[in-house]
Amino acid sequence: MLLDHFAAIILGRYMELHGYKKIFLYITAWPELLGHINNPVTAVYVVLRLIGRISFPIYCFLLAEGFWHTRDVRKYALRLLVFAVISEIPYDAAVFNTYFDFRQQNIFFDLFLGLCMLICLKKAGNHRASLQIYIILIFCCIASLCHAGYNIIGILFIASIYLIYDKNRIMGILAGSTVQVYCITAPFSFLFIQKYNGQRGLSLKYLFYIIYPVHLVIFYFIAKSISY
Questions:
Q1: Where are the domains of the chain?
Q2: Mind listing the pLDDT tens digit for each residue in 94-108?
Q3: Within 13 A of 170's CA, how many CA atoms are on the CB side?
Q4: Are 154 and 143 in contact (CB under 8 A)?
Q5: Within a 10 A sphere around the Cβ of 130, how many other Cβ atoms?
Q6: Which of 182, 187, 183 shows the shortest CA–CA distance to 172?
Q7: pLDDT above 90 as % of the chain
């Protein structure tokens, strides 16, 4: 994530100022990407962003794990919402160079919406598949209307992890890879996820929460120093 944001915010600002073209990382952009990879600045930008694409599926998997094991899901949801609000101004400043921009929201909004969906899916119960489909579609619409960072893709990925992975790890990996295949390297996250042994490690959750807005602020000021 840090590498991805370094490329998007700092290196991206440098590229804007010096006339370099930023390349999208979707599968449809492969021909264009290969045509610019000989440029060293563009090549570094692309490599860092491709590495960064691995992070979001892991965040979603950890969200589902947190939902399965948390003792208080309401506090979990509130914590995500609080950090979504805290992170929004740093995110807008770093990504859009303005303090308020509603074109896209930070990742905590994706995770918050995803957790709310999981709560609703659990209440619906596994025996009511049609209701679960409606719930997923509703949250896809909410994510789209709110301009969540990963939009519908994020919601579908979190849903696939919750509904499939816990019951059949291989099928969950395949379903998640299919959802994430829009971005070239995102499916590689499952090389890490499938190694998970189900045991809790060292708890660093607040460190990761705090790092998100803090690193955006730092990257914003570094990018501003490049601009002037």
A1: 1-52, 55-210
A2: 998 888 888 899 999
A3: 0
A4: yes
A5: 8
A6: 187
A7: 35
